[in-house]
Design goal:
It is a single chain. With 261 residues, the protein is mainly alpha-helical. The protein is 48% helix and 0% strand. The chain contains 14 helices and no strands. It is globular. The chain starts with a helix and ends in a 13-residue tail after the last helix. 45% of the residues are buried.
């Protein structure tokens, strides 16, 4: 994959739009999950305060960029929230941003050994250059720098495998190359869930649940046209990449994919 610095900047700015995309507009509809598997509870734990302490999230900047945080969201960032992670349209923006921060900063085999590791223009991608709510710099300053989670080698392996085979309708890149906010966020979510014991099947279901939350129109289309797909199949390049969705789903379903949610 070859790209010049200027081309990378143009791509990143085109994806991010007017700056950091924080999920100011959430499309209507609940997540659509064909072939749903019941998932174990997932918890934030001390992820929030660890991200804040590392400077990946500056709470004041995040509040300003998003127009404010709820009391529950503030409690999550302080580490005072003890309930399960809620996954619904009201939580969509906060999930996107917090998982984005985690996927960006967490030291991982995906970032250290995947295509991002040799991508010279990584600092100018939407997932890095678009992250402007860190304390000390843009997203590339934190990229693959912090041990927020302590993943075992087996957990790293399962995340790498699922990241290699999950796509998003805004581009043709797998989660293994998290070049936008959605890719980085899904990586962070997979890492957190794997660290809490999720197996491969459960990770695919979680990934589909989140993707369908962030791209509701696209996954409504997939569910309507291909109701019998497993989560792993629905997330494959054939259906969930931009070109795959356009080829196999868009002919029958109106919709569009954008990192601007």
């Amino acid at each position: 994959m070859t790209i010049t610095r200027n081309e990378a900047i143009k791509i990143s700015l085109g994806i991010v739009g007017l700056g950091l995309i924080i999920g100011l507009i959430i499309q209507k509809g609940e997540p659509v999950v064909p072939g749903q598997v019941n998932l174990p509870p997932l918890y934030w734990g001390d992820i929030g305060p660890r991200l804040v302490s590392a400077g990946v999230i500056d709470v004041v900047k995040l509040e300003k960029a998003t127009g404010g945080l709820s009391d529950e969201e503030k409690a999550i960032l302080k580490g005072d929230y003890r309930g399960e992670i809620k996954i619904g349209k009201e939580e969509s923006g906060f999930l996107l941003n917090t998982f984005w921060a985690l996927g960006l900063a967490q030291k991982s085999e995906v970032l250290a050994q995947g295509p991002m590791s040799s991508f010279e223009a990584a600092a100018y991608l939407a997932s890095t250059g678009g992250w402007t709510v860190g304390r000390d710099g843009a997203g590339d300053y934190y990229l693959n720098k912090h041990q927020i989670l302590n993943l075992t080698p087996e957990q790293e392996k399962i995340v790498y495998g699922v990241a290699s085979n999950t796509y998003r309708p805004c581009c043709d890149n797998p989660t293994l190359f998290p070049d936008c906010n959605h890719g980085a966020a899904l990586l962070g979510a997979l890492e957190l869930a794997a660290n809490q014991g999720y197996n491969e099947e459960q990770l695919y279901t979680l990934a589909l649940r989140l993707n369908s939350l962030w791209f509701p129109g696209e996954y409504q289309g997939i569910a309507e046209k291909f109701p019998d797909l497993s989560p792993k199949e629905a997330l494959s390049a054939e259906y969930s990449s931009y070109s795959g969705w356009q080829k196999n789903v868009a002919a029958q379903v109106q919709g569009g994919a954008s990192c601007a949610i």
